[in-house]
Amino acid sequence: MTAAADFPGSLAAAPGDFETRRIVYNDSISRWFVGASVVWGLVGMLVGALVALQLAWWHANLPPYFTYGRLRPLHTNAVIFAFVGNMMFAGIYYSTQRLVKARLPSDLLAKIHFWGWQAIIVSAAITLPLGITQGKEYAELEWPIDLAITAIWIVFAVQFFWTLARRTEKHLYVAIWFYIATILTVAVLHVVNSLAIPVFGFKSYSLFGGAKDALVQWWYGHNAVAFVLTTPILGIMYYFLPKAADRPVYSYRLSVVHFWSLIFVYIWAGPHHLLNTALPDWAQTLGTAFSVMLWAPSWGGMLNGLLTLKGAWGKVRTDPVLKFFVAALTFYGMATFEGPLLSFKSVNGLAHYTDWIIAHVHAGALGWNGLMAAGMFYWMVPRLYGRDLWSKKLADAHFWIGTFGILLYVISMWTSGITQGLMWRATDAHGALEYPNFVETLNAIRPMYWMRLIGGSMYLIGMFMMAYNLARTALAGKAVDGEATVVVERVVARETPWAEILFGKPVILVTTVTILIATMAVVNNEASLVLSSIVIVVAVLGTTALHLAVDRSRPRWHRLLEGRALLFSSLTIIAVLAGGVAELVPTLLVTPNDPQILAEARPYRALELEGRDIYVREGCYNCHSQMIRPFAFETKRYGDPSTLAESIYDHPFQWGSKRTGPDLAREGDKYPNVWHYRHLVDARSVSPGSNMPPFPRLVTDTVNLARTATKMHALQSIGVPYDDRQIAAARSDAEAQGAEIAKNLRDDGVAEVDAQSEIVALIAYLQRLGKHPPPARGPDVALTP
Amino acid sequence: MYKDLLVQSPLLVLPIAAMFLFLAVFVAVAIRAATRSREDMEMAARLPLGDDHDHR
Q: Which of A101, A229, A694, B29 is deepest in the core (most CB within 10 A)?
C-alpha cells in the first residue's frame, strides 16, 4: 500500500507516526450511475433508430411532437449526456475513490448529483419533443435547464475536489488529471455557450449572433466532444484497462505528454466545423492547424492503451472486457485519424454537410464511447455485486453483433456521404450541374439509409443483451462496497510550498521563451522566423542544461505538481482558458465596421421573427444549412456565397451542419408562397421523393402576436437595432404582413388561410432569407437635385 | 504576413502569442517527461493495480 511518506514532495515521517486506516468506498453511487447509463443508453439509441427510420421512411414522423427535427436533438442529448454522462460519473466515482484512497466525503451530495442529473435528463426528454429549444446543436436545452445543469455540475465538482482534498494517496494518477480537465473545462464551455437573454419561462435568445454565435457554438460543440466524450473516457481507459489486463500502463511518460498536449491542443480546433464559411480566414486556418496537431496526442493515447496489452494479447481472446477495450481503442484511433483529415479545407469541402460526418461521429460515439462503456460495465458490475458475470458467452455475442453493427453503420454512411458530396458537385461538359434537383441526390443514397438502420439496430440489440446480462448479474449477486486498508501518517507531512512549484524552472523557462518569441513575432516581422528558431534551440539546450544541473536528491517539478491538486487544476484551467480566450476574443470584440455589411443588414420584421422561432422550434437546422460556401457548384445551386451581414442579427445563428435537404440561405423569392404552403403541409406534393416530415398543424395553430413585442425588446437589449417605433408597431406590422401573404395564398387557390397561422409566419421568414429589403422608410424629405 | 493579419485587428496578436506559449509548454513537458526517473514512473503506473479487495 502506498503511504503518504512515499511521496517525494513530503518530508518522511518516523515509523511510529503511521496508523492503519480501513476505507469502505461509496459504490452505491457507481451502481446507480451504471444502471442509469444502461437505461438511458437504450432510450437514446431507440430514439436514434427511430430517427434513422424517419430519414429512410418519412411516414415514421408523427407530427407535431415526434418529427425528425424535434427527435434528433433528443437522440444526441440522450446519448451524449445521459448514456455517456452517467457512464462517466460511474467510472469517475469508482476509480477516483480507489486511486486517491478516500471515500466520497458526502453521501448527500452524491444523491443530489445522481437525482439532479436524472431530473435534467427527464426535463430534456419532455421539452425537446415539445419544441422547446435554443436551436444550438448539443446545447438545445432552454435556460432554466441550463441553470440546473450548472448547479448539478458544481455539486459534482465539489464532491470530486473534496475527495481529492481528503485523499491518503498523495500522487495524482494520470486518470485523475483527465477528470480534473473534464470538470473544469465543461463548466467553462457550458457557461459561455449558454449565455442568453431569457424572454419567457422557456424561451431565450443567444447572447451572441451570427458568426460570433457560430464560433462560440462550435468552440463549445467541438469541446463537448473533447471534454465529455474523450478526456473522461481516456481517464477511465487509463484506470480500467490496466486493471483488466492486470499490468501497468505501457508508458507513464507517454501519458504525461498525452495529457498536456491533448488539453492544450483540443480547445483550439473548434473552427474546423466552420471551414469554407463566412468565418474569418485566420480562425479557419487556426482550426485546421490545431486539428492536424491533434493527430499526435490522440494516437499517442491510443497506442499507449493498446501497447499496455503487450504480452497479454492471449487474454483478449478469452476476456470480453479486454475485447471491448481493444475494439474501443481501435475505433478511437480510426475516428481521431479521420477528424484531422476532415479538417483539411479540400476534404472538408467534399465531406461537410454530408453523411460522412455522421459516419465520423458514430465511429466515435458507438465505437469508442459505447464499447468503452460496455467494457467498463462488464468489469465493474461483477465487482459491484460480488459475483462473476452472468454470461460471458452473451457478452461475447454482444461484442460481435455490436462491432458488426458499427461497421455496417459507418460504411453505409461513408458511402452515402461521399456519393452525395460528389453528386452535389458534379457538372456536365458545359459546366451545368448534373443533378440540379436536390431530391435526386437524396434518392441516390436512400438504400444507405436503410443499411444504416440495420447496422444501428444490430448495435441496439447488443445493448439489450448487455442490459439483460448485467441485470442477471446484479440480481444473482448482492451489492458490495469496495474496501481498502491504507497506512497514513498521523501528522500530515509538510508539503512543498506552492510558490516553489509555481516559480519552478520549467515555468520560468516557458514564460521567458514565450514572451521572447511573441515579442519578436510582432515587432520584427522579417527576422522573426529565424530568431524564433534560434530561441527554440536555445530553450531546448537550456532545458537540457537545467536537467543536467538538477539536484538529484530533490523531487522533480512535475512530480511535485502531481501531488498538488489545486495547483494542478489551476494550471489546467489556464491551459484551457488561454486557448479559448485567444481564439474567441478577437472575433467577439470586433464590431463590424464595414459600411456594406451595416448597410445590408436588417433585423427581421415582427412576423418574420415569429416565423424564425417556428423554424428553430421545429429543428429545421437539423437538415437545412443557411451557409452557401464559396464553391462554384454551390453558387450554381444556391446563389452567391453567404456573407457575415446576412446572419449578423441571427440569435441564434442557423448556419447548420448537415444538408439532408438543400441550403436555405437564399430561399427568399425562389418559390411562390403557395409552393412553400404545400411543401410544409406535405413536401411530396411539390417535391416527389422528399423525406421531409409533414407539418399539418402549422395550418391550424396560430402565432401569439401579443408576445412579439417582448421578443423584439429582448433582442434589442442584446444589440439587434430595433427602434422603439418598430417594437410598438410589432403587432400591426405582423398582422399586415400576414394578411398580405394570406391573400396571396388565397389568390393562388388555397381555400382557407388564417393570416395569423404559423404557416404564414414561417413562409414570411423563408421568403425573407437572403433578401435585403431597403431601410425602413423615414419621414418624407424632398430630394435636392 | 503578420502585418497583414494584424491590420484586421491588433487583438489577433492573442492567438499568435498563445500558440507560441502552447508550443513552448509542449516542448517543456516532453523534455520533462522524457527525463523522469524510471522508478518514479513505475510507481505511478502501478497505482491502479491491487487497490482493493475483489469480493467475487
A: A101
